[in-house]
């Protein structure tokens, strides 16, 4: 706890010094000096604290107990015992070198078959992609056909309307000619009436 208090005073003094802050006679330099003196006193006090006991490392590393190292021969005996047990287990399972070599061959064949599956899987993916593209192309063709059908129907209607307009124009021409003839004959009648009236007068 005393270390923390000393460090806190040093930090506050440094803050006063950096910010050029002062509270009455307490300026940054004074606060920093007080903090460092406090820290020095804390270190002097800590020099007289009792030292903790060393940890007993022999609990973790048994070979450190009494300064004696573990016997390497005993360790190699344990390894040979483990190897012997493994050999006994293999003998009980009837796993001889021929069966092990057949197992290795089977694993290699399986690996070869797995490698050959890769291109087939790629081919399936490519076929699926091609099928999707064909479906999209068919949908696009269908929409183009619909658009062409609409354009064709529109052109047919336009042609019918053009024929109707031409027919109406022809009728209008005939009626205009008839009107001109009627007006001409009407003018002749009115001209005759006017001349008859002017002769009477």
Tell me how many strands there are. 0
Indicate the radius of gyration in whole angstroms. 58 Å
Distinct helical segment count: 4
How far the N terminus sits from the C terminus, by CA atoms, comes to 148 Å
Helicity, as a percent range? over 70%
Estimate the strand proportion. Answer: under 5%
SSE topology sketch:
Layout: H1 2-19, H2 28-47, H3 72-92, H4 97-200
Characterise this structure.
- This protein is mainly alpha-helical.
- Among the domains are: 1-48; 132-180.
- It is built from four helices and no strands.
- It has helices at 2-19, 28-47, 72-92, 97-200.
- Helix 1 (2-19) runs antiparallel to helix 2 (28-47).
- The protein starts with a helix and ends with a helix.
Could you give a short description of this structure?
By secondary structure, the chain is mainly α.
Identify the notable features of this structure and list them briefly:
single chain, 201 residues, mainly alpha
């Amino acid at each position: 706890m005393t270390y923390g208090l000393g460090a806190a005073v040093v930090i506050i003094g440094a803050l006063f010094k950096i910010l050029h802050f002062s509270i009455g006679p307490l300026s940054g330099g004074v606060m920093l000096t007080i903090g460092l003196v406090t820290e020095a006193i804390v270190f002097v006090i800590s020099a007289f604290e009792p030292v903790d006991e060393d940890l007993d490392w022999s609990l973790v590393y048994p070979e450190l107990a009494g300064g004696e190292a573990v016997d390497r021969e005993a360790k190699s005996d344990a390894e040979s015992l483990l190897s012997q047990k493994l050999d006994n287990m293999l003998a009980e399972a009837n796993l001889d070198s021929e069966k092990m070599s057949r197992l290795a061959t089977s694993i290699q064949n399986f690996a070869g078959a797995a490698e050959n599956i890769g291109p087939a899987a790629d081919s399936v993916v490519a076929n699926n992609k091609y099928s999707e593209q064909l479906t999209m192309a068919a949908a696009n063709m269908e929409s183009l056909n619909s658009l062409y059908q609409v354009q064709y129907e529109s052109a047919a209607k336009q042609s019918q309307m053009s024929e109707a307009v031409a027919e109406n124009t022809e009728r209008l021409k005939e009626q205009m000619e008839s009107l001109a003839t009627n007006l001409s004959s009407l003018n002749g009648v009115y001209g005759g009436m006017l001349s008859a009236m002017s002769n009477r007068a």
